[in-house]
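User: Can you fold this complex?
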Amino acid sequence: MRHTSLVATVAAAGAATLLIAACGSSTSSASSSAPAASTSTSASAGSAASSTAAGSSASSFLGCMVTDTGGINDKSFNQSAWQGMQEAQSADPGISVKYLQSTTQSDYVPNINTFLGEKCGIIVTVGFLMASATESAAKANPKQDFAIVDCSYASQCLTGAKLSNIDQLVFNTVQDGFLGGYLAAGMSKTGKVATFGGEDFGTVTIYMDGYWDGVQYYNAQHHAHVQVLGWNEQTQKGEFTGDFTNQTKGQTVTQTFISEGADVIFPVAGNVGLGAAKAVQTADAAGGKVSMLWVDTDGCVSAAQYCKYMISSVTKGIQSAVKNAVLSAATGKFAGGTYVGTLANGGAVLSPFHDFSGTVPAALQAELQTIAAGIEKGTIATPTKSPV
Amino acid sequence: MERVSAATAGRLPVLLPPGPARGGGAAPWAGRFGAPAAYLVFGLVDILVFGLHAKGDVTFSFTPEFAKVSVPNLSLAAAATAYCCGAVTAALAAVRLLDVLGVVAAGRVARRVLIGAVLFLFVIALLAWASGGQPIPFNVVNLLSGTLSESIPIMLGALTAVICSTSGVINIAIEGQLLLGAFCAAIATTVTGSLWLGLICGALAGSLVAAVLAAFAIAYRVDQVVLGVVLNTLVLGLTGYLYNAIMVPYGDTLNNPATFNPVKIPLLGDIPIIGPVFFDASVFLYLTYALLLVIHFGLARTRWGLRTRAVGEHPVAADTVGIRVLATRYRNVILAGLIAGIGGAYFTVGSVGSFGPDMSSGEGYIALAAMIFGRYTPFGAIGAALLFGFTTQLQSILSSINVPIQSNLLLLTPYVVTIIVVAGLVGKVRGPRAEGIPFVKS
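Assistant: Here's the predicted assembly.
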């Protein structure tokens, strides 16, 4: 009797300790922007550190990255950013890179502080949720170079006085979203195309704004009446699944769109897009002719099993932006300021058509090139209510 | 440790005296007139909010996409529809008022039907307003089949919770059981190529989490709420780690499962509207039907059910008459874990295929809520799960046709509606008396 109560007490105490860690983890990841997955091995571990097997003896420049809560394999911005870091390392043998993973939002500051003590040449923080942590660290350490992905002073993500040691990497994805919308409208047979987001964040709705713009532009050019389901730029209201993890929700939302007659679907929701792809696959197996656009990365690479349903992907060049930021810091050319990925510099472009290269009409492909040129020159406006 | 045993000993007798007599005395004024007043409010909303703002025609479509047979669409004037719904609702409020005053005597079943009718009319009026004037018909089949596919994991999780709670063990670890079930089903199906093996592995994985829960809760008497939350976090971390460590690098060979195709039941599947919704669906839905019936019958009518209720209600008495309390609890919790594991397998091999981190997205907690809202009964729990699935799907359809409501606000509706309906309909819920209290044989 006494023995078992002892065991119970110890177990309860251990469990309670774990619960404190668990509470912190679950509450903050629920409100986070990124795919809210805990990727550390232990429930109580705040962060998981990892460094690559770079020849540290030869390297003189250390590139450091703090991930958002989505983790390093989120098929989205954290993964792209880390690939950029690794590319910088392979481009210049003098660079070595490492990352710290944030399990919850409360890990941002400690992770940045850890790197501050490690003499990093540059600290890259990923995602707009890290804005205030990055800003205060940059203010306190004016000699330390920082780069932040998806966040800038212009978009009021960074709010304080402008600091010269933060390189802001943002992407004007309204431009390639516009091309995606035009492409979708041109490919639609039913006259209805659809989009949905994970959560109502500026980095999500900027894509949806572009998509909506593109469809309206197509309608104006072709006197067509293609309809956008799931988003309206003017009212800023539309369809969101509520998170970036529930793929089943992405599937049912897409089935709803298909039942309403949409035949090109554009999910802007990270992994939830896989549910959309499954719904598209099911519809095609049932005799429908539905296709989709992927977001952020080239879907034929990141979700290759669904490549044959993807007309194209509306990408965001985080990888090359991060790579360039690290390389320029390593060569002493760090300048701070804002890098805006655009159609012109390859930071926000449509991916190749892959399996659809024979299906997209040549005329439509030519129109897309004309429009791309027009957007680059500024003759075609790409309005958005979520500017970068 | 003295304190712990004293506290445990002190808690038991407090919970064991018989509860207060139910329904004693007249209900207070607000309680008696609450129901008719609420109905009237619904009727007024139908008329003043939906009716006055509705425009054009609302078209209901009853055909699934790409179906060969089609049922003709139903087109109604939106405003008139909302006004009619409001008028009928007001009439129902009057009937309920007469019932309260004792002029007509409505039974319990009749009152439930009244509530159902009021809510049904409310939804119709809402749709008339939201969908009126839209060029896209409102697809009723999509609404219903989406409801079911949203609800399947919640329904299965809720059935698990019902069995565990009835046996006297709080199972908060349903979330973890779903997630590990999803993970193992994806791996097993990809590796073996067999969907059924994947389903079985998913069920066993759910059962594994349940076994850990049972061991700590029953043998070591750890606080069951804390324990459940810890297990969920453990599974979340474990599957997240394994996903990064093995599923990402070897995605094709470990995380690329096939999925179950819908199975059409002959004859029943050909019935218009309900055929494609209820009888041309995933095997998981048929499993849910079967489990619901088995558990309902089992708990209410069998020796197993009687003993299960006894150990959850009054373990000391059960022990006295020779029921093995701890063995019963172990067996029930582990068996119930199988059901949640099947629910988890639905996330991967039942719907989207590949596994993703945290893909159960908190539905295990919703399942737990559904059980409580459903008064700890299988049918009640399934009903609450379906209500949640229904509002989720309705919200999703309304978002897709650009209803002028803020997206974030609309995303809240499933939770709000569930709370309101449950608070209004269910009233006070009493769980099994010994729920969450470890049994110590004295």
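The longest strand of chain B covers residues 57-61. Residues 1-26 of chain B have pLDDT under 50 and may be disordered.
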